[in-house]
Amino acid sequence: QLSCLLRMVTLHGIPEDLDSYPKDLLLFLSPSDYSATGSCSQYFNNIGEANLDVLPRESPQRKQLLLEALACLKIPGTQINEENAEILGRLLCDLAGEYIRSSGGILLKDLSQCESFLPDQEEAIRDVISSGNTTFGPPAAWSAFTLRELAGLIPVFDHNILQQIPK
Fold first, then answer.
1. What is the Cα–Cα distance from 96 to 148, expressed in whole angstroms?
2. What are the φ and ψ backbone dihedral angles of 91, each rounded to 5 degrees?
3. Name one GO cellular component term (predicted).
4. How confident is the model at residue 92 (pLDDT cuts 50, 70, 90)?
């Protein structure tokens, strides 16, 4: 339905008020198409607010969106800073484990909003948390507030992490 709606909206070219349309619609538009009305970082900022689950998790379209976002933001290597994490929004949920490890604890709070994780991502999250080298500190220093902040990650925690968290 969304791709059909996009065809109708763009029948006579890309409308100037594209940002006023639902963000989910942009999932079916390429960044180069969007460039007529804004920058690629603006496009991916909007995509980050869209419901990515409209596209299947491992779909070529979704993978391509992430690759284009990383290229647009000129992210060298696998480290994501806070500013880029904010722009990527829900696209962070598709980052490979190497990005999660390299970025350290910066991504944890954002990742806790994700619906599910691939095994590679789960392992990376556990590695980052176990290192204790995050803004939340080691699990032994966590409070109820910390657990609320990271609630979406709790299913990923293994026995070693859970055992360290104070009762």
1. 24
2. -65, -20
3. membrane
4. very high
Determine the average pLDDT of the residues in 142-160: 94
Q: Is residue 10 part of a domain?
A: yes
Please, what is the Cα angle at 88 between 85 and 91, to 5 degrees?
A: 115
SS3 151: helix
- Statement to judge: residues 83 and 129 lie in one domain: no
Tokens standing for residue 135: 């803004």
Nearest to 55 by CA among 81, 25, 80: 25
CA distance readout (Å), 95 to 32, 69, 137, 141, 159: 22, 11, 23, 27, 24
pTM exceeds 0.85, yes or no: no
Question: What would the mean pLDDT of 122-150 be, rounded to a whole number?
Answer: 93
pLDDT tens per residue across span 48-82: 888 888 888 888 888 988 998 999 889 988 999 99
Residue 65 contacts by C-beta under 8 Å, 6 or more apart in sequence?
27, 47, 55, 91
Q: Specify whether 11 is located in the same domain as 69.
A: yes
Could you tell me if 32 and 64 are in contact, meaning their C-beta atoms sit under 8 angstroms apart?
A: no
Residue 12 has pLDDT above 70, yes or no: no
19/90 same-domain check? yes
The count of domains in the chain is 2
Are 62 and 16 within one domain? yes
